[in-house]
Task: inverse folding
């Protein structure tokens, strides 16, 4: 049998398999990271010299700090670059490195022991920071000056350098549009303990699925669990958009929206709801900006319907216009409207409405144009009909009989 490596093309393909994948990072982000590293390292070195330069012979900048700078400025969202990982990882690694020198002296063996113990400790303390392994190695093999510092090496340059660089990363990343530190939930088991989950979770993957896969994967990922879940969700949404086409809210919304103003009487607002057989009444100002929304529920709440026996009487008293100048009950729609209204731009893809209408308890979403003026409204029924039509269109291209099958299934 011929060896597969004997062919030149096979050997070339094998070498090409080691080439790294292209980074999906634009030039602006690369420049941002490089400038951050330059500013961070320069200011850290200068500040360290001004603070303690005359009191010690230790270097103003520790070598492994360059690796910390790559994480803090280049990948600030990484779990390995968070403040706890940076400070605790470098600190415990320095302590372990100095301790190994005290017990085992300066040698390759003590350096290897220090680095491996540092990694084990960082795993235990959940502060894995790759430069920490280099810090432990430096404590052993950094030369006579470093070794002579003993445990002072932990305070300077390790702790001082790390805190200064971390503070600069905190300021620089947030000023350049990269939130830092990256906040994530430390434990997701309690928040996803129920089996039902959200509506979207029941359709696609849910958080429990992701937790189970990560547990089986059993490797450290250089991305937070929350970011990974968010990427999966965005990928799923992107797939829906590709599948259903570019269907926007403008395409499915009801354009003949019945509206009211702040001063519309409750009696007139109730008539609009009843006559047009609608369940929601957007409240707009003169410029047709949505300032609130009135639903049947708002009428129910303000009628104080605690006793069902007087249901009709209470509702009539609330709606009936008060004669005179004073009143001890709401008189106009603006007094009972819900003020915090979630609106959506008319060019939003309908898939982006799914979380709003399925998991946030919304039944109607006012649609506004680029000037935030009301142009339509989308209901749960509108969204279901649009997704259903998109599903039929998608299936009909794949299988001509699918349209018949889906029609029979709805009977």
Result:
């Amino acid at each position: 049998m011929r060896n597969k490596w004997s062919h030149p093309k096979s050997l070339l393909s094998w070498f090409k398999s080691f080439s790294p994948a292209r980074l999906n990072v634009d030039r602006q982000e690369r420049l941002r990271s490089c400038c951050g590293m330059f500013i961070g390292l320069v200011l850290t070195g200068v500040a360290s010299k001004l603070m303690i330069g005359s009191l010690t012979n230790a270097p103003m900048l520790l070598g492994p700090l360059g690796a910390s700078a790559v994480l803090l400025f280049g990948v600030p969202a990484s779990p390995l670059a968070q403040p706890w990982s940076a400070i605790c990882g470098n600190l415990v690694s320095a302590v372990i490195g100095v301790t190994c020198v005290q017990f085992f002296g300066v040698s390759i063996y003590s350096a290897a022991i220090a680095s491996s113990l540092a990694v084990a400790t960082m795993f235990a303390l959940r502060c894995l920071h790759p430069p920490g392994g280099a810090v432990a190695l430096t404590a052993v093999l950094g030369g006579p000056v470093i070794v002579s510092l003993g445990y002072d090496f932990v305070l300077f340059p390790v702790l001082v350098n790390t805190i200064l660089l971390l503070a600069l990363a905190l300021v620089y990343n947030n000023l350049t549009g990269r939130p830092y530190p990256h906040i994530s939930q430390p434990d997701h088991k309690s928040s996803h303990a129920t089996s039902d989950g959200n509506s979207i979770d029941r359709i696609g993957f849910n958080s429990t699925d992701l937790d189970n896969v990560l547990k089986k994967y059993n490797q450290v990922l250089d991305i937070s669990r929350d970011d990974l879940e968010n990427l999966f969700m965005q990928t799923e949404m992107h797939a829906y958009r590709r599948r259903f086409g570019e269907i926007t809210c403008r395409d499915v919304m009801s354009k003949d929206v019945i509206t009211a103003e702040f001063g519309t009487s409750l009696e007139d607002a109730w008539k609009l709801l009843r006559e047009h057989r609608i369940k929601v009444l957007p409240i707009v100002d003169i410029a047709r900006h949505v300032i609130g929304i009135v639903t049947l529920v708002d009428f129910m709440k303000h009628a104080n319907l605690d006793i069902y026996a007087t249901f009709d009487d209470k509702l009539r008293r609330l709606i009936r216009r008060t004669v005179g100048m004073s009143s001890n009950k709401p008189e106009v729609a603006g007094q009972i409207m819900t003020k915090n209204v979630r609106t959506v731009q008319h060019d939003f893809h309908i898939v982006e409405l799914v979380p709003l209408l399925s998991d946030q308890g919304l039944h109607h979403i006012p649609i506004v144009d680029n000037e935030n003026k009301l142009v339509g409204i989308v209901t749960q029924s509108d969204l279901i009909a649009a997704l259903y039509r998109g599903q039929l269109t998608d299936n009909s291209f794949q299988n001509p009989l699918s349209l018949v099958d889906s029609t029979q299934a709805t009977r």
